[in-house]
Amino acid sequence: MSIGMILLVIVAILIFMGLAERVLDRLRLSDKAAIAIIIAIVLSTIFIPNIAITENVSFNVGGFLIPMGLVIYLFIKVETGKERFRAIVAAVIAGAAIYLTQRYVLPAEPEAMQIDPNYVYPLIGGIIAYLFGRSRRAAFIAGILGVVLADVIQLVLNNINNIPAPTRFGGAGGVDTTVMAGIIAVLIAEIIGETRERLQGGTSKKNMHYEKGHFVSTLGKANKEDKKKNENKNKNKNFKRDIDDRGDQDEK
Predict the structure, then answer these.
(1) Which residue ranges run through the membrane (predicted)?
(2) Residue 90 and residue 70: Cα distance in Å, rounded?
């Protein structure tokens, strides 16, 4: 089993144990949706072959189609234009960095490396995705999209230079690169973000909870409940007072 698949299994276990609820809330995902996505990626990677678009271009369902669908969903869920802009900028920078690393830094022969380049790319993409994306959601989007953009850059240059090299989006180890880039980006964002929040005395959403696709104020909810309790309490007092007044009238 590849490292990417192992990471997905670990994430699934953390979700079942309830240890990933905070991260999933930030990503606007429920436990069931996250598990369904993980299962879909694993099964499609194992059982569905690459789908050819042209002779030299193909994509993998688990390594490209599903992650890109998740990216689109998260991008729609982003609540501010500033965060969308950061996600796009981070993705472009991450994609360029991955391509330049592949083209000019790493040796031409992967066998000459002591580590698989498919594990180097997500590390680079994940770090850059957080540095420029900042939020968990933007980092995740940029991490996955950065890997895809690196392949797009290579495809465009191949066409310009008439190089008949195949481009497999999410295939040939790409599923590991894509999955790991997203997970690494979110992991870095969570560790650094959680540390900063603790140093600052808490998170800005400490009085909020995630409900039906959005953060809802827990404080407001609590205030409404307290208000309702006070109203019921006042009603009971008034009812008791009415009974006592009637009793006094009867005695007279």
Answers:
(1) 6-24, 33-53, 59-76, 88-106, 118-133, 140-157, 169-189
(2) 17
